[in-house]
Design brief:
- The chain is α+β, with helices and mostly antiparallel strands.
- It is 67% helix and 12% strand.
- Strands 2-4-5-7-6 form a five-stranded mixed sheet, covered by helices on one side.
- The chain is elongated and about 115 Å long.
- The two termini are 37 Å apart.
- The model has no long low-confidence stretch (mean pLDDT 91).
- The chain binds protoporphyrin IX containing FE.
């Protein structure tokens, strides 16, 4: 049973006595259920905004039947997994149809009043008082579950909106970066060619290091700029995927071998956790390698001396997930939303393109990357479809 549900049951303090009273009430109230349903729908129809949610008489007939079942199962219980599951479905349905949540309170009040009126005719006054208390607890529980689903929905919407905004921001930057890289690339290539020409002529004429050293340095700088422009382009316009069938576990092992020396140098333990059988997926193996290598390298950098970096691989029928976990200080909240933006970096060295390229390559595979970080544990989850 989800903890919200058990928390509610505990908080409302529905006792075994309450439950017994409700169970005994069910057969006595059952003959009046159709009448309660009638009042419920009369109240709906009389409110134009509530009535607007209803599609037509067929739906109302279906609702009348489900409402009667709802009344019966609520009183009979038990308040177990299945009960919560059923109530969750109702809650989700109301959210789906766009029913404003304040209607729940009004509708529940109609049910509560109808029950109470009947209870007073069915029981002697002192017993009626106890039954009414039990009914109130049940109705409040039902109401809380309904409202809880509105909250879940708005949380999901908030997360989805943040994701969308992030994707839009990154896409705008991709456009800008592509334009910039494109404009820089041609003059840079031309400068590189001319400089090579000049260098060759220079060396033919003289071997004076006062002339050749600056030329060599200039060429090194141009070569660095070329790498940078290529990184810009890899982020802005990732090349097409070269798809093939690959065992992801092999990629994990290769990256681990590649990064082990730098882990060892920092006395960081690099641990891989792989399934016992191959995880063959359709992907671009070189790009997958690039994604993982970037994340593992960052994790090793983030881990404290003698810390640990774990790379875990898990899969199901449709997707596989790579989890890269380090026990470093964590990524501050204000950085988390921006780490995929190009040029955004918290390191003194570094272009701030590594994570942007990772994000781009993951998106190109139709996957998602999620971060969950607090002091002492940072986890990146990369989930990709097994088939492109
Ligand atoms: C006491 C509050 C309410 C209860 C107990 C209740 C109960 C239910 C139940 C049991 C279902 C069926 C869910 C399923 O299994 O698919 C449902 C769906 C629905 N409810 Fe409610 N409801 C309540 C309030 C309202 C209100 C105020 C409206 C306003 C118009 C409303 C409109 C609907 C509609 C349109 C559906 C979808 C029916 C369909 O499947 O086509 N409900 N509700």
């Amino acid at each position: 049973v989800p903890s919200v549900f058990s928390d509610l049951v505990r908080y409302i303090a529905i006792s075994d006595d309450d439950l017994a009273l409700l169970r005994a009430l069910e057969p006595r109230l059952a003959p009046f259920f159709p009448d309660v349903a009638e009042r419920f729908y009369a109240a709906l129809w009389s409110d134009p905004k509530a009535a607007a949610v209803l599609a037509g008489p067929e739906q109302v007939e279906r609702l009348r039947r489900t409402l009667i079942d709802w009344m019966s199962t609520g009183l009979l219980g038990p308040l177990d997994d299945r009960f919560y599951e059923k109530r969750s479905r109702i809650g989700r349905r109301h959210v789906q149809i766009g029913l404003p949540h304040h209607y729940m309170f009004g509708a529940m009040s109609v049910v509560r009043t109808a029950y109470q009126e009947r209870i007073h005719t069915l029981y002697p006054p002192d017993e009626a008082a106890r039954v009414v208390i039990a009914v109130n607890k049940l109705i409040d529980l039902e109401l809380a579950i309904m409202v809880h689903h509105y909250q879940l929905d708005s949380e999901e919407k908030l997360i989805a909106r943040e994701r969308r905004m992030q994707a839009e921001r990154i896409s705008a930057m991709q456009t800008m970066t592509a334009g910039l890289a494109h404009e820089v690339r041609n003059p840079l290539n031309a400068a590189k060619l001319q400089l090579e020409l000049l260098d060759r002529r220079l060396r033919r004429e003289s071997n004076d290091p006062r002339l050749t050293d600056p030329s060599e340095l200039a060429q090194q700088e141009i070569s660095r700029l070329t790498d940078l422009v290529n990184d810009f382009l890899a982020f802005a316009r990732p090349p097409e995927l070269q798809l093939g069938d690959h065992d992801v576990a092999v990629t994990v092992q290769k990256v681990a071998e590649l990064e082990r020396p730098s882990a060892t140098a920092k006395e960081v333990e690099l641990v891989t956790q792989l399934p016992s059988t191959p995880v063959v997926v359709r992907c671009d193996a070189a790009k997958l390698h690039q994604i993982l290598d970037n994340l593992v390298r960052n994790a090793i950098e983030a881990a404290p001396p003698r810390g640990t970096v774990r790379v875990e691989l898990a899969s199901n029928e449709h997707t596989f997930t790579l989890r890269i976990v380090d026990n470093g200080p964590g990524i501050a909240e204000e950085h988390q939303a921006r780490i995929y933006e190009p040029f955004y970096t918290t390191k003194s060295m570094g272009t701030g393109l590594g994570m942007s390229i990772v994000h781009s390559l993951v998106a190109l595979h139709g996957g998602t990357i999620e971060l969950d970080s607090r002091p002492g544990t940072t986890r990146f989850h990369v989930t990709l479809p097994r088939r492109q």
